[in-house]
Amino acid sequence: AQKITQTQPGMFVQEKEAVTLDCTYDTSDQSYGLFWYKQPSSGEMIFLIYQGSYDEQNATEGRYSLNFQKARKSANLVISASQLGDSAMYFCAMREGRSFGNEKLTFGTGTRLTIIP
Amino acid sequence: GAVVSQHPSWVICKSGTSVKIECRSLDFQATTMFWYRQFPKQSLMLMATSNEGSKATYEQGVEKDKFLINHASLTLSTLTVTSAHPEDSSFYICSSRGSNYGYTFGSGTRLTVV
After folding, report:
1. Is residue B109 very low, low, confident or very high in pLDDT (cuts 50, 70, 90)?
2. How many angstroms away from the CA of B37 is the closest CA of chain A?
3. A44 vs A98, higher pLDDT
4. Of A44, A104, A106, the CB nearest to B105
5. Residue B102 banded pLDDT, cuts 50, 70, 90
6. CB–CB contact B103 A33 (8 Å)
7. How confident is the model over A20-74, as pLDDT tens digits?
8. What share of chain A is helix, strand, coil (3-state, %, to 5)?
9. What's the DSSP call for residue A45?
10. At B92, is the secondary structure helix, strand, or coil?
């Protein structure tokens, strides 16, 4: 079974509009972490935002916010006021395992976001 | 912030030769290094986890004799693709824990075996 599911292979959004990228996860751990990364065509992985399983408030980082719905096991990324530079591949990832060095980061299949001028 | 320097950025090698990829943590001690592989238009797949001073732990299906990982110091981890073949052509990227919850990635190495 997929641990991280991203159901949107590609999305096209008009510049300045908000966009939501979907992510659902599956884990039996009580303690876990959820991440979103941006991967431009150059290949580097750029950290966007993090949500811990025990965090009560949704994480926000500038134009990025994470809509964390624990009961539904979803962690959608919301990008407000999209910009042309937001065009990239976006990956949702989950960290399981508590002990340092014994953790594992599992990635979803990604969503390719294209911002239209 | 934590930086992981990965070299080379790209490499082309002949089939049958070996290629070494280096990841250095520049401003922190990388006790653990994760190595990923990414085929075109696909996700990152964890290949192995290396802890400084001990043998790497490989994921199921990854040939440990083909993908040699060395993590001899707290600032350097290497991945050697031995006897490379065209099917090994891929994007390889390393990652380490840079903060209390975050992960820092290298810039990746694009390997092409001809």
Report:
1. very high
2. 12
3. A44
4. A44
5. confident
6. no
7. 999 999 999 898 999 999 999 999 999 999 999 999 899 999 999 999 999 999 9
8. 5, 50, 45
9. -
10. strand
Helix (H, G, I), strand (E, B) or coil at A41: coil
Structural tokens at position B42: 């696909």
Residue A5 has pLDDT above 90, yes or no: yes
Angle at B5 between CA B30 and CA B72, to 5 degrees: 40
Of the partner residues A44, A91, A100, the one whose CB lies closest to the CB of residue B108: A44
The alpha-carbon gap from B65 to the nearest alpha carbon of chain A, in Å, equals 22
- Which residues lie across from A12 on neighbouring strands? A114
Task: Among B34, B102, B107, select the one facing A43 at the smallest CB separation.
Answer: B107
> At a CB cut-off of 8 Å and minimum separation 6, what does B70 contact?
B50, B77, B78, B80
Over residues B15-31, the pLDDT tens digits come to 999 999 999 999 888 88
- Give chain B's length: 114
Residues facing B37 on adjacent strands: B45, B92
